[in-house]
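Appendix C reproduces, verbatim, an entry submitted by the partner laboratory led by Prof. M.T., so that reviewers can inspect both the input and the predicted structure.
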Amino acid sequence: MTSSPMGAIDLGSIEPDDALATYRELCRLRRFEDKVYQLFLKGELPGTVHQYQGQEAVAVGVCQALESGDWITSTHRPHGHAIAKGVSMRAALAELYGKATGCCGGKGGSMHLGDPEVGMVPAIAIVAGGVSIVSGMGLAFKLQRTGQVAACFFGEGATNEGAFHEGVNFAAVQRLPIVYVCENNLYGASTPYHATTLVPEVAERAAAYGIPAVSVDGMNPLAVREATAVARARAAAGDGPTLIEAKTYRFAGHSRGDAKKYRTRDEEEQWKGLDPIDRMITAICARDPQASAALALIDEQVAAEIDDAVEFARSSPDPEVGDAFTDAYAEPFAMPSMAGTSAVAP
């Protein structure tokens, strides 16, 4: 189940149903993001969005290798992670609309998507913020001896943050059950990785903490899944964390206002030639030329699921004003009356 950066996906001994299920998950993430893009341009979604098209193989591969009781932390680009981990499209899209039926009750929005019910804390938009949070999760799993593992997603830009170095070093020393997943999409916003870091491979950084690392084709869900399965088994056995560098590429800009002028057309076309969905179609049909009907049926089912999610989100109620004071640790602060006092501050 390996592939060179420019090679075809090798299904190897993967069962046909498994291959189709992987294709389905890739499509669910891609079509969801495509729909979000359309809805955002129509002005239906508040705030901004950071989209995941192109990187689907990482989320799908990692989450397929995790067990149901495992947890993940995410980033400001969390839609794919959330859906791959089990957040329903209905709950995810309702959250983007800011509706009460959203997975965070409409309070998180795009950059804070998540649901503890499926093992995902609301996404952490601070760069490398999840690397700190996951240390606590991993320590809890270790002390409670639950056998659970936490996977932490972050971009290559996060590896230059202090939180990354402190978090990984602590996890290494404590041998915490964590899988670090670096989605290296080459750019921190508009800045290329090589312009900020002299270490050419993110995976090389693991040597500084005494933990193993692997660099994989992040446009191949099977390669990502295989690497994650090995890392998860190691973590669950008490041998500590592993760093996975998944080399991938976002087809969209950093956020909706990004015109991508810092990238060349040739570079974009080269990476689009590695589209994980197209590569899975090629691999599946090469092994079974009759599989096109099954693939078409999956496309129809995913389209219907998305249409259902849109209708659900649009028809869902807005949160009540009083909901702003729920899920809060502090009591609402009431300003004292200023009647009869001077307007001059003391």
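Residues 188 and 238 are 33 Å apart (CA to CA). Additional entries are available on request from the coordinating office.
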